Amino acid sequence: MASQGPLKLEEKLVCSICLEMFGTAVTMPCGHNFCMKCINNHWDKEEQETPPGEKDYTCPDCRKRFEKRLELRKNVALCSVVELVRSGEVQAFSAERKTPANGRRCSRHGRPLELYCQEDKMCICCVCTVKECRDHHRVLFEEERKRKEVGLGYLSPVICSQSEATQLQSHQFFALSFPLIFFSTQDSSERLKLGILQKFAHLMKELEECQRGAVDKIEQEQATALGQVEENWSQLQDHLAMLIQHQQKAQELLTCVDDMKFLEEFLLHPSPGSLGVLPAVEFNVASAVDSTAKILNEVSRLLLEDLPNSLNSKAADAETKGKFFPWGPSLPLPSWTPNHRNLTFDPDTANRYLQLSNQNQKAKHSHSPDGLCQDHAGRFELWQVLCSQSYSQGHHYWEVRISSHSVILGVTYKKIQRKKRAGRSFSIGLDGLSWGLQIREDCYLAWHEGQSHKIRAPLYKCLGVSLDYGTGILSFYGIGDKMRLLHSFHCVFTEPLYPVFWLCEGRAVTLCQQN
Q: Would the keyword Zinc be found if you checked this record's keyword annotation (predicted)?
């Protein structure tokens, strides 16, 4: 139709490389037009991809080849037409084309809304026809309105019929079904609520019993160990008293001048002998409640993550959709204020390939070992390093920046494995002494007791670690525009915890500091 003339003109003024209206238009010897910047970028790319001595230059449209790079000049006439179209000075070829009386403009391009796109079901401007709706079916507002008015005319009797049927159904429901459903729902909800309350009461009672049992077991183990300590102490004191008495008798005999009396008294004063090996005092608080601790870890995860998530349908839906929440999709907003800790690396534990700088606040994996690094019992053979600080109570939070993926951060007891093992480049999270988060290129792995849990999330260069020692919750967060929970461990901690890191070759970790 005639009203489509300006639209066809604007389509002809689009660069086939950038799909935008020409900037500085240039014309090739083959007759095709491009933006000067676009065609030069195209030829730059061809120069990089073609081996030296075999360079040729092509037209992106017809693929015609040129032996030398052409010196293209601005097409003044074509640029003038583009400027006219941009400024809106090109008028319609038909009296049918006109600016809408309401004067509404496109929210994306600021041009008057002139046509209706049937695929996108929205009003569009002339620029939309060149870009987003280029291949869509477009009609005038009047045509689309007539088509929809016909549809409304057919629907009107149907709507009236459905309205009458709905009113009749509403009267029947209120008179017959509503009382039955109301009282049935009320009765069912009361019974369900009572059952839930009884179940929680039973669980709390059992938890209290388990708590008393675990505490009693620890106290029994403690009493046994302290009793052995007292017994060993008593034996040592008795043996020491006997040795002192024997020494005094020996001194008296040595001062005796009567040889016969000396020999007679010597027979009555035998050697006291040695004390022997004292029984070892064994008290391993972790093994005393090891099975209980594992159950508590799982119960903690169920109560703090799965149970609130099951009761909050919105949180569950948001988690499945992968939305971001300030403190993660499964846990509610914590009541604590982050108590930031300024950490420093412990140089006596750093592997020889890890160079510490910035007052021990930055660690980088270099290509060569530090020749001045002295031997130390706590130094890692693995590419790992501990922090100097440790925590055994309270709530703590710290942040780190990483240069790239292939880094592990976590916490550990001080007796973590420091020697190399076959087939393993790190020891964080491979036993029950440490917990770690491995940052990989495509995902995260949460490690503990040699088991890993995969987490799908984008790569964060800044990460936060929250350690609530008392409640046994260790959480890792990704920090971007918002804070996202990546993973939480639920544990029973029994020893001081040290922040620990593993760095692959060329990687760097910086401990964030706050005043």
A: yes
Count of CB atoms situated within 10 Å of the CB of 330: 18
| The pairing of beta strand 451-455 with beta strand 434-439 | unpaired
Residue bearing tokens 């939305």? 323
Q: State the pairing for strand pair 498-503/115-117.
A: unpaired
Residue whose pair of structure tokens reads 């290509």 in the numeric block: 367
- Give the separation between CA 436 and CA 405, rounded to whole angstroms: 14
**Which pLDDT value is given to residue 411?**
97
8 A C-beta contact, residue 92 and residue 5: yes
Going by pLDDT thresholds of 50, 70 and 90, the confidence category of residue 17 is confident
* DSSP element (H, E) containing 66: strand 65-66
pLDDT at 336 over 70: no
Prediction pTM value: 0.50
Domains of the chain: 1-96 (3.30.40.10), 143-283 (no CATH), 314-511 (2.60.120.920)
449: left (phi over 0), alpha (psi -120 to 50) or beta: left
Q: What is the pLDDT of residue 389?
A: 95
